[in-house]
């Protein structure tokens, strides 16, 4: 066996028992091919307090469990010495935890050792690997592997898009596959007697043959990544269940191991030497926002393309096509694969997954994971400072930390509103005021020399990690911007902005309300003081939200003068905070406010039916390439629970308001069009089922009533949790299909037009002229 060194990227990780010892297995992508690496003779570990060691030892001996207790020089946040408990394998590890559970407090016992192994070595995606290398069929196997971090290695993945079609019970019809230069649909059935049959269709007699054909194609195509839409929680779950029912070992990985689908808090799919990445999860991780994450909606918004089957009864149409028109089903199946591949390519979703893994150490396919990412980054630093992470809620504090600062708005129609934004306000507060979990513990030891926080918090000026981590991320983001690496810059921004959220989450082991409060209340103080500074300049602040301040500038000013004044305000505010942090706290300020936007026209509505201004809802006009463009925030036009007619009406009515056009004329035109039945296609409501239909008992919303009626009329329809229900309001109530029902046009006027009109200044006069006057005759 030859000793070799490779640069690679971790595809997957797992821990197994091997000859009674813990063995870690890592699959990696390298320039030389895929590697399967084994790390042997590892010991899973958790920690207990030194004062609990004798009791723990007695309990474990009673169960004949061999656990090694070792003093490793770590302590709890309360300064008590901690003891490491090492086990031989994962079986004894879980047995030990079960024995001690609810009797002895254990610490960091929830961290998988395959994760801890990488974490403690600061390995995040990229890795150098050395060991005894042997060529296997399709991959290189390395034993006695040694791994260390490789910060710069970034792989190029080959991707295969997969999509299945099946009936409501999961019985498979076809499987579509598409990659850069290949596409195929494996279809159950006989080819029709037609010479013009697409070559991409691979015909098979039954489900078993379909699964064997899938295994053969995946082996030949040999992708690093398999992508899809809800592919982890649907497609692979169905494939695994059908294979199990048919008694087939579904082997889609590099070696002979069958697919492993684990269902816990989230579904995990393990394929040897490959990784499965879901499009919906990756979009959400990358903070893309869509009113619906259905493939049809995202494809239309991103690509300008549509699915081949879009109707509400899509499952019925798929079943019909399988029975009557398999060529159309094949076209639909492969189109979905191609749409997913195109979305991943255009939005660079694989690149984002790689960069996110490089920054956080999370698995490529991991959904969410902000708390896990924070743990990966922070825990090894904490250990090197001599501490073990605390358990949830050990601080004993139960008060709530406040949210971001939101100023009362001054409703109205304005000209020249400049928006000044603090750049990454919460990360900047963390960095400036030294806010840190360990720093809080160290600061409370010597509060007289610490940076004061809120709710009796105090933070060490020198003993901390989070401020340094924020500084490193900030510098890395600037470098990414200079290098025009937009994906890296965006990934860093997401991670930086998640740090406060993690510290404010009770699901994080480092949560302490003194930490979160010292961030948000400092933010309140900064925003309020900034408002006072601006108003001392003789200007009016009409709104503020978390990190944004909206400043009203004189109507008569031209755009150039407005922007110059905004830039001058930025300089004055930043200078103030530099001086304030230095003189009051003896700290360097990393607070930085920026001029973000000039709204030439700006409208802040009132809360409906009240004179009070709304919050987080406004619309402004900016110029993009010389063209006026409306920017809506929190308004009906950007919300998924309003109809298209409401969104279009709001766009037109705001444009009329800004341009001084007749609001009455436009409103009357919409009302007349609704009553005349000219815009029926724009009257659909759409809402997702948040739970199974039968679980709606106390209250039954309109979309649930429509869904229940639809299922009652058609027993084969499958409407389950997560289904999008599109419906009309009719004289018979909410219905998914009109049939003989008549649309209740007055409902739409009352519920979709008038509420938007009532946000407009002087709406009473318009409403009076629209409302029919009724007379009483003598």
From TrEMBL:
Entries under Pfam families matching the protein: DNA_pol_B, DNA_pol_B_exo1, DNApolII_insertion
Recorded superkingdom: Bacteria
Residue span(s) of domain DNA-directed DNA polymerase family B multifunctional: 378-438, 472-752
Keyword Nucleotidyltransferase recorded: yes
Molecular function GO terms recorded: 3'-5'-DNA exonuclease activity; DNA binding; DNA-directed DNA polymerase activity; nucleotide binding
Keywords assigned: DNA replication, DNA-binding, DNA-directed DNA polymerase, Nucleotidyltransferase, Transferase
Keyword set includes DNA-binding: yes
Catalytic activities: DNA(n) + a 2'-deoxyribonucleoside 5'-triphosphate = DNA(n+1) + diphosphate
Ranges of residues in domain DNA-directed DNA polymerase family B exonuclease: 105-298
Enzyme class, spelled out: transferase
Gene3D superfamilies, A to Z: 3.30.70.2250, DNA polymerase family B, C-terminal domain, Palm domain of DNA polymerase, Ribonuclease H-like superfamily/Ribonuclease H
Family: Belongs to the DNA polymerase type-B family.
Protein name as annotated: DNA polymerase
Species, as recorded: Pseudoalteromonas byunsanensis
